[in-house]
Structure formats: C-alpha cells, structure tokens
Design brief:
The complex is a heterodimer of chains A (141) and B (198). Chain A is mostly helical and 141 residues long. Chain A is 43% helix and 0% strand. The longest helix of chain A is centred in the C-terminal third of the chain and has 23 residues. Chain B folds into three domains: 100 residues, no CATH class; 59 residues, no CATH class; 31 residues, no CATH class. The chains are: A mainly alpha (141), B mainly alpha (198). At the A-B interface, helix 5 and helix 6 of A face helix 1, helix 2, helix 3, helix 6 and helix 7 of B.
Chain lengths: 141, 198
C-alpha cells in the first residue's frame, strides 16, 4: 500500500535511499532521506540526452518516475509519513520467518522434540496464555 | 504471536541444553541471534522510552546483525531451492544409471557405503549452490534500523500499531456484511457501522 501511495518499488525503503542489495546489512553508513520533491525536479528538468541516465538513477533508488499522491501538498514529506507497524513489521514480517529459520536450525541439530516438549511445559503466568499444543502442531497463529 | 515474544528465548535456551563441545558455538550464536531479535521487539513495544531504552534497541539490533549468519542457511526461498533440487534429481538419476551399468555386483555393505557417500556429496553440492543465493535483503529487515529514529522523533511505536484497527474489522465490517443481504454490501456495512456508533 505505502509503495503505491509513495510511488516507490515494493522492495524500496520509504524513508531512505538504501540500495536493495544492502537491505539486510547492519547500517554502517547513513543514507540520504527520500526527497520526492528533488526526484520530481530531477524527472522534469533533465536534458533529453540524459533520459537513460535518469531512468537508471530512479531504478537504482527504487522510485517510480511520475507524481505520487503527496506531490503538491505543502509541508508534507512522504518519508516522514511512514510509520513502523508492529503487527506487520515485527510479528508477521520478522517473527514468522524467524521461526521458520529456527525450525531449520533445530532440525539440523535434532532439537525439535526438545523444543516442542519445553513449549508444552511453559507454566501459566498473568497476562500470558499457555500454549496447549506442541509448537509443530500449531497451524495458525 | 504475542506470547511467542515473551517465551521464545527461554524455550530455546531450554531446548538447546545438554550440548557437547562441537555444538557450543552454533548454539550460542543461535540463542544470541534469537534473543537479540526478541529483546528488540519487546523493547519496540514499550509505551514510553528513555535515551537508554533506545540505545538498548540499537544495541540489540546490532547483536542480531552480528549473529544472524547462523540462520542464513535456512533462509532459502522456494525459487532458490528449485534449481539445486532439479540438479540433485538429475545427479541422482545419473548415479543410478551408472550403478545399473556396472557389470560386477558388489556386496551390499559396499553399495550402501557408496550410496551414503553419494548422498553426502549431493547434499554438499546443493548447499554450495544455495549458500550464495541466501540473503537477508528484504525491506522488513532493513526497516528495523529506522525504529530508533522513529521513537526519537515521534514517540512510542505502539501508538501507531494498526492491530486494534484490524481487530475491529472483524467485528464491525464482517458483522455488517453478514447482516446485509449481500446486495450493495459495502454501503450496507458502512450504514450498519454508522448506526452502531454512539
């Protein structure tokens, strides 16, 4: 959704200009913040001969050439509008894949059964609902 | 999923107990990686922050990045796995053909040993093909680096969670849809919601 609204690719960061192939690295350098006004100016005021270079520039940034829905709104910076969402960023975006990696890890070291057994034996605690099934038996979170 | 964050580190630590000296390094890295990500997520859910808590978040994220290579081999997509699988199948068929063509029949133990060696060889080849293709370059992994700056600028992340909104969809929109006659369902659902509002 945010990618469509902000006119960026689905694998692009809505806040900074990090290249796709560096998304998984620990951030060693500060990347420039996305500036859609600058992109617009660049797209409109380029020499015809430099069209290929401009297209390549936007492709590298993962920005689609053209207006996005926020262009023309004063004092609005699309990069600041985007907010992290715990549900999709952490739970579904990271915990779910992390558990898949962890399953592979446990399988490799033959610890799946131990993990399941411990999972089932978690004692009750206020505000914590005790799992009733072994981890591998859970089909939906 | 909420519960998972509260207990995963403890469960994993317990499951990885009774280790031998060969497993020590892998288990330590695996546990560190999972607990760092878990701690980061738990701190991200704080309703108020201080400079220290934000520093902790950044530190946990750094620890995760430092140790995440331990699970890299399990981050294989279906598309990445398809090519080595195909090659493995072809290699297996080739080896089976070669075995059939062999004139002399060898003892069962020898054949079994050779089959085991072939299996290990195929598995190593597949792993070698997959390893360079695996990466963590996906947007949700990168976006964690912006969490700390977001907290500094806008406050707690929990305030912007859309979880409550999505839960409300279940009652408000679905109930409205069920109670409609499915004709102009969107309009009727909206009117149903409006009628329920105080």
């Amino acid at each position: 959704m945010h990618a469509a609204l902000e006119g960026i690719g689905s694998k692009s960061c809505p806040k900074c200009e990090i290249p796709c192939e560096e998304l998984g690295r620990d951030r060693r350098r500060i990347y420039e913040t996305c500036n859609h006004m600058r992109y617009r100016e660049k797209a409109l005021k380029h020499e015809p001969a430099a069209a290929a270079g401009i297209a390549e520039y936007f492709q590298r940034l993962g920005v689609k050439i053209g207006n996005n829905v926020f262009i023309g709104l004063d004092q609005v910076s699309p990069a600041d509008l985007h907010k992290p969402d715990l549900l999709h960023n952490i739970y579904l975006g990271l915990f779910k894949p992390m558990m898949e990696w962890l399953e592979g890890f446990l399988k490799k070291h033959k610890r799946q059964q131990a993990f399941d057994d411990t999972w089932k034996e978690i004692p009750p605690d206020p505000g914590f609902s005790v799992p009733k099934k072994a981890y591998r038996e859970i089909t939906q979170w | 999923m909420h519960n998972l964050g509260h207990c995963i580190t403890a469960v994993l630590a317990s499951a990885l107990g009774n280790l031998n000296s060969f497993q020590y390094h892998d288990f330590k890295s695996g546990l560190k990686c999972v607990s760092a990500l878990d701690d980061f997520s738990l701190m991200a859910q704080y309703w108020s922050h201080t400079r220290d808590t934000v520093c902790y978040m950044e530190r946990y994220l750094q620890t995760f990045h430092r140790t995440k290579d331990i699970v890299l081999e399990f981050r294989t997509s279906k598309a990445t796995r398809a090519r080595p699988d195909r090659q493995d199948r072809e290699l297996r068929e080739l080896m089976a053909d070669q075995r059939v063509k062999e004139v002399h029949h060898r003892p069962v133990a020898n054949r079994r040993r050779q089959a085991d060696q072939e299996r290990v060889e195929r598995s190593d080849r597949g792993a070698d093909m997959i390893r360079p293709e695996n990466h963590f370059n996906f947007i949700k992994m990168h976006y964690l680096t912006h969490f700390a700056s977001h907290v500094r600028r806008f406050g707690s992340i929990s305030m912007y969670s859309i979880e409550i909104g999505e839960l409300a969809d279940k009652d408000e929109i679905k109930d409205g849809y069920r109670m409609s006659n499915k004709n102009d369902a969107a309009g009727r659902s909206c009117r149903h919601m409006a009628a329920k509002m105080p």
